[in-house]
Amino acid sequence: KSKELGRNMYQLFDQSMSKRNYQSFILERDLRKAIMNDEFVAYFQPRVNALTGKVTSAEALIRWNHPQVGLVSPGDFIPLAEESGLIIPMGKWMKRRVCEQLVAWREAGIPLVPISVNISSQRFLQKDFAKDIRALLEEYQLEGKYLEIEITENSIMKNEETVTKTLEELKELGVKIYIDDFGTGYSSFNYLKTFQLDGVKIDRAFIQNISSESENASITTAMIKMAHHLKLEVVAEGVETKQELDYLVEQNCLQIQGYYFGRPCPIEEFEEKYLLTV
Ligand code: C2E
Ligand code: MG
Ligand code: MG
Ligand code: MG
């Protein structure tokens, strides 16, 4: 660790260092501190069944409560966290935070909804990923159905053997797997029949301003049809308007996530708004 820091210090004083490098040096240093000082916060965003209006699950989304800057969005630190490997301890923190919350709800007698966690491809591709999830569920005495996992297409395209094994183990545990940002990757659709997946989350880019005449509508409709044929669940992400919602319901895509039903919010707020209202 100190050796590494020394190297970074050297870089810092290197005349050729650009401003951008300097900024990412500061950011990485602060991120390391954030992990030690427990500066991360989990926000939950509801996923709603469009027909019943019921909250069926939630996605856990990380925020960084920076001591000087305040709340920082993942878009501003995930890329560097990926690059520096800090995404691994961050992910570990998030999985524990989610399990802790599920246990707290259970102990309070609040009916649980599954919570979905984003997993970096770095972590997902490590051979011990599923084993780690198994140990976590055991430690917290949680059923696998309460934990869901979101991975991106590029997570699944790398090492077929490892991915197959990991997915099998997760299936055994009852942990569902969703492909996040579906439709935005460079991959072919071949993986959809190769691997045992539970569902896809259609990226917000396709949902925006959707109406029956738009190009997005044709693409989304095709994705929904394909998913249903493959017996995959379909979730639409980033649904903001009634118009978008109506179009999706018409196409029989009933699992909805987006500002229309609720923004990501602190867990206490999520609990009050969505779990305690009978
Ligand atoms: P994602 O997994 O695709 O999460 C959905 C993003 O869309 C979230 O952004 C959410 O706040 C935003 N969103 C949801 N509904 C709407 C909507 O109706 N309109 C608009 N404009 N946006 C909406 P967020 O929270 O900023 O997270 C961004 C990305 O950061 C996530 O995209 C995910 O890839 C990553 N991320 C977040 N938390 C974690 C984490 O704990 N671990 C990892 N590895 N990645 C994470
Ligand atoms: Mg996600
Ligand atoms: Mg997404
Ligand atoms: Mg994403």
TrEMBL record:
Residue ranges of every copy of the EAL domain listed in the record: 24-278
Protein name: EAL domain-containing protein
Organism classification: Bacteria, Bacillati, Bacillota, Bacilli, Bacillales
Organism, as annotated: Lysinibacillus antri
Domain of life: Bacteria
